Amino acid sequence: MRLKSFFANTIEEAIRQARHELGPEAMLVNSKRTGVEAQHLGAYEVVVCRDAPDYAPEDAERGGAARSASATLPVHQLSRDVSELKQQMEKLALVLARSGNGTAANTFDAQMSRAFTMLTDAEFDTELAFDIVSRIDSPITPERLRAELTKLVHIDTELGCSGEPSRVVALAGPPGSGKTSALVKLAVQYGVTERRPVQVLTTDTYRIGAAEELRSYAAILGIAFQVLETPAALGPAVQECCHKDLVLIDTPGLARNEMEIAEDWAEALAAHPGIDTHLVLPASMRTADLKRVAGLYGIFQPHKLLFTRLDETETFGPLLSLSVRMQKPISFFSSGQRIPEDLTPAAADTFLDWILGRGSASGTCPAEPPEYHVVAA
């Protein structure tokens, strides 16, 4: 099997060049906007594959505006592209195996190519992007694409578990994910401004100054605060807070080599099914790192996903891809350091606008912010 990239100003033109050079049996592997280093070749890059043992290298110059990437791109860029193509081919094989020959027959459909390119530009998981476009009846319109994406968006902004006397919420996530800021924002929006009793419990005695930072916030807001030294102290502390309307638990952010400690706290949280655990992850994290960290912190058995730093990214496909992969709803979005304005409940329509490039995540604060205004350290 041979892979080849073609460049042109439109996807349709690149596909025509690929068909002309490689024949009608050539299959589309990927289509995307051209990177900065190859924009002089055309606005779009289309990658196709074909079983052709008799394929000759001299064919590379046929096709006019569509030219082989190997003749122009630096070696390091080619190495990176080959690695990405390998991953995409593996995912494509899974998609084709699941959907049958019908997908292969339709891969040159221009509308499907445009929809797939839009999703991959938003950094959707490749397999998920294929699944989405393959489920849409032709013609693939923006309205139909949005309707298909709507089926995948699951939102749950309810704090706490139903049937419990008080709302007990734990935030888990890696170091620097914004757990502390998110916790304080939740305390203000859903406790202080509603004049409800709030209790903050911190288990983060591993990071220097972490407990004192939360203690300072609690003192400013006038809410109860307690440090838990060991996982065994969690159960009694939660029981003592049963009269509080909102109990917020801050868990330690631990590095990969410290996950043994995280396991102890994860077991302690799992022993109390009434605790609503949210996995806090930065939206600005690279896609591969987002998957890896979510896998590590899966030991906390989170009920929901809370994404921070939305103002630091312009691609939101990885967030929906992760939600679909983990089968977890999204609860809140945080888009900055202001407390409490920069935390808003997740909304499906707004989220889809971001994914489809029709809005900015930097404008998620409410129109009339609460009376408390604190700037996170």
Question: In words, what does this structure look like?
Answer:
The protein has 2 domains: 2-114, no CATH class; 167-375, P-loop containing nucleotide triphosphate hydrolases (Rossmann fold, 3-Layer(aba) Sandwich), CATH 3.40.50.300. Helix content is 39%, strand content 18%. It contains 13 helices and 13 strands. The strands form 3 sheets. It has an 8-stranded mixed beta sheet, with helices on both faces. A 3-stranded antiparallel beta sheet has the order 1-3-2, sandwiched between helices. β5 (198-202), α8 and β6 form a beta-alpha-beta unit. The model is unreliable at 54-73, 101-108 and 365-377 (pLDDT under 50).
Helices and strands, with pairings:
Elements: E1 2-8, H1 11-22, E2 27-33, E3 44-50, H2 75-99, H3 101-106, H4 110-121, H5 126-134, H6 142-150, E4 167-172, H7 179-192, E5 198-202, H8 210-221, E6 224-227, H9 234-240, E7 246-250, H10 259-270, E8 275-282, H11 287-296, E9 304-308, H12 317-326, E10 330-334, E11 338-339, E12 343-345, H13 348-355, E13 374-375
Helix pairs in contact: 2-5, 4-5, 7-8
